[in-house]
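Subject: design request, 397 residues
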């Protein structure tokens, strides 16, 4: 594999004689088309949830804007940190497990607008999902072409768990920061990359995957240039982990254990890292005994993600994308607890869809009707399963 291609194109400005051609701007018109397709897909998905909710006498806005983790974020936004639910000496759910950026955004929206908490959560998440879709398109267009970029956005909108993008959850916010931070790395904007990585690190526990990608890319560039890099690279690399590290240390200090306090909070929630042993035990249970539909789908989703990561490696994707998707996949597959949530944890790992996007475009050019059937089937699965998850499954998302 060519090492020069790993970060293609090089994100550090070389001497004038070695400079690559000027960066190609991302066409606004085609990005608009991709964004329109994304919005149409997610609006149809939300409509499917609404129809299912009305059929059973539920209120769609509350299901989308105030369920499971959304309730914790709304409470933090309204009252700050400090709430814990004790179920057992070894099972204590503390709101310190939830990172601060999303509730901070919720509080800002509710104070600046007349919107209620759930409506504010939906506004933040839907806006962030649109920003994320634009960033995903920009990466796809830079690495391939407009058609692949559009397919990448559409596939992300039609994942089985993409209903989460229409809910008051943090995945859209993380993906928005991640996509544009990775795009900044690919285009040599190191300070922007580091600054956006700070936001990602404040959004979710697995947001450190963005900082890991920035640091890995910076280290590779430092090695490739034999130390002759700009101060912007050093600044971006120094900024990247500050959001995640800052919150983890703050929780640790509040808990009386600066380095281990946050991880103890997660352990009491049942979340820990055991290199996938708990997940393997649960897969054995599924294969031998079966369970609710949510769990087999989660198992298949994680298995598909592992396969797609292998394809991403075979396609020699840029190093930042490999590190980012790899860290997200490593954490999701290797973490214990909340097996049914693993597909949601993988939702920000959009680079895994690049091989599928390329394949879909090749199919569309050779056999348009085949591609249309594939997209239609994905849409039907996404909308139906999304409505099932939110309205009928009664399992944490």
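Subject: RE: design request

Done. Sequence follows.
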């Amino acid at each position: 594999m060519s090492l020069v291609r790993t970060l293609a194109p090089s994100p550090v400005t070389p001497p004038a004689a070695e400079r690559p051609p000027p960066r190609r701007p991302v066409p606004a018109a085609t990005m608009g088309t991709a964004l329109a397709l994304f919005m149409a897909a997610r609006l149809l998905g939300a409509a499917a949830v609404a129809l299912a909710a009305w059929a059973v006498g539920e209120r769609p806005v509350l299901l989308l804007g105030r369920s499971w983790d959304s309730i914790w974020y709304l409470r933090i936004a309204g009252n700050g940190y400090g709430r814990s639910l004790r179920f057992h000496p070894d099972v204590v759910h503390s709101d310190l497990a939830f990172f601060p950026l999303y509730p901070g955004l919720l509080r800002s929206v509710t104070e600046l607008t007349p919107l209620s908490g759930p409506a504010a959560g939906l506004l933040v998440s839907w806006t962030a999902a649109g920003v994320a879709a634009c960033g995903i398109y920009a990466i796809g267009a830079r690495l391939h072409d407009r058609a692949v970029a559009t397919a990448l956005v559409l596939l992300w909108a039609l994942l089985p768990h993409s209903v989460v993008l229409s809910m008051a959850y943090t995945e859209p916010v993380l993906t928005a920061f991640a996509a544009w931070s990775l795009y900044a790395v690919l285009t040599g904007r190191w300070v922007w990359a580091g600054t956006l990585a700070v936001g990602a690190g404040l959004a979710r526990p697995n947001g450190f995957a963005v900082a890991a990608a920035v640091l890995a890319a910076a280290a590779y560039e430092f090695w490739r240039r034999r130390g002759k890099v700009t101060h912007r690279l050093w600044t971006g690399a120094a900024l990247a982990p500050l959001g995640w590290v800052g919150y983890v240390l703050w929780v640790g200090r509040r808990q009386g254990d600066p380095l281990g306090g946050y991880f103890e909070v997660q352990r009491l929630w049942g979340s820990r890292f055991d290199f996938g042993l708990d997940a393997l035990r649960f897969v054995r249970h599924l294969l031998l005994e079966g369970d609710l539909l949510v769990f087999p789908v989660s198992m298949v989703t994680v298995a598909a993600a592992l396969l797609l990561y292998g394809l991403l490696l075979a396609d020699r994707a840029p190093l930042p994308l490999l590190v980012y998707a790899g860290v997200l996949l490593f954490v999701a597959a290797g973490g214990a607890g909340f097996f049914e949530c693993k597909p949601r944890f993988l939702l920000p790992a959009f680079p895994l869809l690049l091989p599928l996007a390329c394949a879909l475009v090749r199919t569309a050019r050779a056999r348009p009707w085949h591609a249309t059937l594939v997209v239609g089937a994905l849409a039907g699965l996404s909308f139906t399963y999304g409505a099932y998850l939110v309205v009928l499954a009664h399992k944490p998302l």
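The radius of gyration is 21 Å.
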